[in-house]
Amino acid sequence: ISLGYFLLTECTLQTDQVAVTSIPYGDTEWYSLSVPKGDKNILDFFGIDFDASDFIPSSAPYGLPDPQTRWECPLNRPAFLAESSLGLWKANQNLLLRRLIDLPAGTSSLEIKITAFQSVAVYVNEQAVSGGGDNPLVTPGGLCAAQDNIVLTVPERYLRTGTNLIAVQVVGGIELNYFDLQLKAVFPRPTGERGTVYTWGKGYYGVLGNGDDSDSFVPSQILQLKEIQSDSIKQLSLGVAHTLLLTGSGRVYSWGKGKDGQLGMEEDESEVALLVPGLPLGQVTAIAAGSLHNLILDSKGRMYCFGQNIYMQCGLGKDNRTNIFDSTKIPSFSSQNIIFIGAKDTHSAAMTSDFSLYVWGRGIDESAKFVGIVPNTVSISVGSHHVLLLDQNGNVYSYGDNTVGQLGLGADVESVSKPTLIESLKGLKIVNIQAGTDNSFAITDSGKVFVWGGGAFGKNGIGAWASQETPVQLIALSSVVVRKVGAGVISTIFLTDGGQVLYSGANLRDGSHSLTPQFWASASDKYFVNVFASYLHFAAVTLPSLWKWTRVGEFYEGVLSN
């Protein structure tokens, strides 16, 4: 990433909450910027806005508490800082700059190319990689003053898979001070520039998509068709023994068990991904897998189904209870525009463009039952016998059975016949909901997790096996920012904003169970951006890589893009 000319020059601030801190270091005075972590628009540099992802969330070198010290400006004039005790930022002041970068697993070295008018020193993860002894400046023969394009190679022992903290100390110049930094990583093979799918768990019927039916208890990449490798990954949905994948180009793939039609074709099983035929090519926008059936939504608001249908979970009416092996349009919604779909076990749900919620499947004696309207709904999530709904104001509603508290409405409520506001979550600004088979999760905009419902095997993570009748915050995760939850039948997967993975509930590898979330190291170095859970198998997906790769001999050379 080229950070351009740094600092000490004319900048446009979009916040009045910037402070300058003086940091004594030996006989030298250094200065560092302090900016509130939650500020979304810190400065404007050639139209680039920096947001919370640019902030250092925890410790920094030398015990400095401030989370962000990146400035980029093209001219050499003093910058006026709002609320600054110094008033001016001058070119002759020493400077400490810090930046978080992510490195993929297997990175063997990192090259740091620096252009500087004055001497600099470089630290990686709080260890000096230039200079000598206690001297923060470089020694002769290292990064010398007033030299361009000095290349420093950081060996593997200083690097971490995941987040690395790069700190650079720059000596101020009397008149002109400029600084340019570029980073280059060496990695043995390119990671998914289009995003990669990982699976783990029980491998029966080839449900993991890795080419066989063996179990795997660490995340492993699926065998992807060439067409998937050249596409992006939009969504995954997991049934009891099959998996669906939706690409960014609107194609649907399936693998695993297909005896009841859940693969969308006449295949008993498949250990690799197969393109589902019969769907409008390039038009699918959402997928939802029940235990043995699937719902598909296209860009025109039309809904399709295939798989088991003995409980009318495909919504084809009382007279059609046979399994569906081909993608079939659901006729009862032919005159309506569907915007959301959901499925779990033998339960199906959909919402139309007027925010009407319909449910069908086991225990419902009609092809689609209208249960109510929740205006301005932005997402739904479906459990075995309940539905969660989230509106644009962050309010959560629940509908269905409350046998183990999965509605979050208290022990006195057995069920509700229409979507009902969960009052205890009101005002918390929920941004993500996830219904398990018999439990429920909600995530706030600040990454706090609330849970309620069935807690078998400790899957709720609250320290008990028992059910929880009303939402409670998952205190064990209060120190991290959670963005996604994969709610399985006996286990739960939590994903933080930094890519860390934690789990609670049953551990399929050894048969144990955890009542509180446990950190999972071997799954936390993949930079997952979403996680999914079902009965006995799980999946996750990575973002397209930020690294651009060029093959050089036996290695790929990766350059970090901005």
What order do the helices and strands come in, and which of them pair?
Blueprint: E1 12-13, E2 19-25, E3 28-34, E4 43-45, E5 48-49, E6 79-80, E7 88-89, E8 94-103, E9 109-116, E10 120-124, E11 127-128, E12 147-155, E13 162-170, E14 179-187, E15 197-201, E16 216-221, H1 226-229, E17 233-238, E18 242-247, E19 252-257, E20 269-275, E21 284-289, E22 293-298, E23 303-307, E24 324-329, E25 338-344, E26 347-352, E27 356-361, E28 369-373, E29 377-382, E30 386-391, E31 396-401, E32 415-421, E33 430-435, E34 439-444, E35 449-453, E36 468-473, E37 482-487, E38 491-496, E39 501-506, E40 513-519, E41 528-533, E42 537-542, E43 547-552, E44 555-560
Parallel strand pairs: 3-8
Antiparallel strand pairs: 1-4, 2-3, 4-5, 6-7, 8-13, 9-12, 9-14, 10-11, 10-13, 14-44, 15-16, 15-42, 17-18, 18-19, 19-20, 21-22, 22-23, 23-24, 25-26, 26-27, 27-28, 29-30, 30-31, 31-32, 33-34, 34-35, 35-36, 37-38, 38-39, 39-40, 41-42, 43-44
